[in-house]
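Section handout, structural biology tutorial.
Before the tutorial, make sure you can parse a SMILES string by hand: atoms, branches in parentheses, ring closures as digits. In the record below the ligand is zinc ion, and the chain has 479 residues. In the tutorial you will relate the predicted structure tokens back to the input. Do not try to memorize them.
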Amino acid sequence: MKMKYDTVIGLEIHLELQTHSKLFCGCSTTFGQEPNINCCPICLGLPGSLPVFNRRAIELAVSVALALNSAVQQKSRFDRKNYFYPDLPKGYQISQYDQPLARGGYLEIEFDEESRRINLERVHLEEEAGKLMHAGDSIFDSSYSLVDYNRAGIALLEIVTKPDIHSGREARLFLEDLRTLLLYTGASDCKMEEGSLRCDANISLRPVGSTALGTRVEVKNMNSFRAVEMALNYEVKRQEEILSADGHIIQETCHWDEEKKETIPLRGKEGSSDYRYFPEPDLLPLTLEASFIEKQSALLPELPRQRRVRFKEHYGLNGKEATLLTENRTLGDFFEAAANDYSDYRNLVKWIQGDLLYQLRESGKSVEQIEPGLLVELITLLNNGNITRPVAKELLAEMVLSGKSPHKLVQEKGLGRISGQEKLLPLVDRVIAENPEAVENYRRGKEKASAFLVGRVMALSGGRADPEELSKLIKGKIS
Ligand SMILES: [Zn+2]
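Predicted structure of the complex:
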């Protein structure tokens, strides 16, 4: 009989905090500059230089920890993590080891319509390493590497989950929800493509029913949420095959190869004892007053989950609508501003999730660039019968592009609804005369033929004819 296995996954997320200067010095954190210009004796670890805390980094770190329900410690400590690799000019990284900034915590995610709590181990602060650029196509056959220390010393937050995740898809959902939450706090821009949000995973399998953890493999170099899901699914299959053939998993670090879609062993995994952590002698322990932590807590914005609940209760939205509107803080803000002036909330959501989001994607604009009042104006024009639905859709596209008032656009372009027999009849007569076949079909009982004729008149009127009146007129004329 084939053995069944449970998948056990823990994630380590690294997050660059959005500060102007680095964690222990005044160097700029601006992305994409000429290599090695944002460096000083402190971030290069030159003899005699002394690190100094960046207060803003600590504020942001505490606010993220609080948003994740993690217990912020009033006393934490920084340690030197020693390792030899050229991305670190100092030969060690200032990090936190046995006294992290915050302990525990959790994030609730929706998984298969059910709420799942992913527990956290810890949240701690450390400094970012420099960036290596390997010559050639791959890290494995590179003949040399270039190093850029602009990134070295940027404030980095590490969030470590407990091994609470059980599939690649669950890992992806967790990361997506985490990213949404982090964007709400404003602590990071969470750009995976620029490396300000990164994720490593530890993954092991164990026989169903067993409580002991299997040998774990660390997977690195996953550069998108999709890559995380794919890499973990790949590892599950790989480990399953080895275990099913009575083989052993080797504890190692693997590199996800995006081209080959497989994990490739990189190096043997160090145990923490290999890093010879010891307290950073140049920094005092970090002591946070209770009032400082309370203040950060008070400054937290409403978080996505709370907002989702409020949107459902207050606006009567269903789960899907509330989720859509809270996935992105600015979209929710847009909805609330519009809902101030328009009380058919469900209808408002329909416009936002359908036509508005579509037009934003098409035009490459973001929702912040659109005035919420303009959408309300457009819907009101339609509701009052001033314009037809096809015209409303056309106007929305125009409004997103130009930012002009729909009311003005209707006047400027003469897009008002055409109604009344005297205006519609000439169009109807013309279409009937031009389409004898459809008229004949309708008379023989083909209902669809009238829809075709309505469509012809609509096209002729540039979508402006009143569709209901039109339908009655046509049927009256040809039956
Ligand atoms: Zn510096």
